[in-house]
Specification:
This protein is mainly α and about 110 residues long. Helices cover about 30% and strands about 5% of the residues. It has four helices and two strands; from the N terminus they run E-E-H-H-H-H. It has helices at about 55-60, 70-75, 85-95, 100-110; strands at about 10, 30. A two-stranded antiparallel sheet has the order 1-2. The longest helix is centred in the last third of the chain and has 13 residues, at about 100-110.
C-alpha cells in the first residue's frame, strides 16, 4: 500500500495551531501523517476534533491572522500565524466537481 505522505513538517496556520512545540516543529507545524487506514479512523486531525472527513480537509485551510476565529487554543495565546501551506490544495479540492469530490472521498475512505 502507498504511504500517501511526504513525512515533512508543514506550517498549517491558525486554524489547526495547538501551540505545542515538539523538536523543531513550531506551534502551527505538523508532520504529514500517512493515510494508511484513513477509512478506519473515527476521528481526524492531530487532536481528533472532527469525525467528518470533509471538515478535516477544509480545516487545513487557514489564512494569515493573529486574532479572532474559531480556534480557542490559538486565540487563548494570541499568537500570530502565517497562512496554511495547504491552502492551495484545499482550493483545488473545492474547485472539483461534486462528482469528483465524492470520488476522492470514496478513495480516501477505502484506504
Amino acid at each position: 500500500m502507498n504511504l500517501y505522505s511526504d513525512l515533512l513538517v508543514h506550517h498549517m496556520g491558525a486554524t489547526l495551531a495547538d501551540n505545542v512545540i515538539q523538536g523543531n516543529a513550531g506551534p502551527d507545524e505538523f508532520r504529514t501523517t500517512p493515510l494508511w487506514g484513513l477509512g478506519q479512523r473515527l476521528f481526524f486531525l492531530h487532536d481528533g476534533r472532527t469525525n467528518d472527513l470533509l471538515v478535516a480537509i477544509r480545516d487545513h485551510r487557514s489564512l494569515a491572522h493573529s486574532d479572532g476565529g474559531d480556534n480557542p487554543e490559538r486565540d487563548a495565546h494570541s499568537r500570530s500565524y502565517g497562512a496554511s501551506e495547504a491552502n492551495a490544495v484545499v482550493e483545488r479540492f473545492e474547485d472539483l466537481s461534486e462528482q469528483d469530490k465524492q470520488a476522492l472521498m470514496n478513495f480516501l475512505r477505502a484506504l
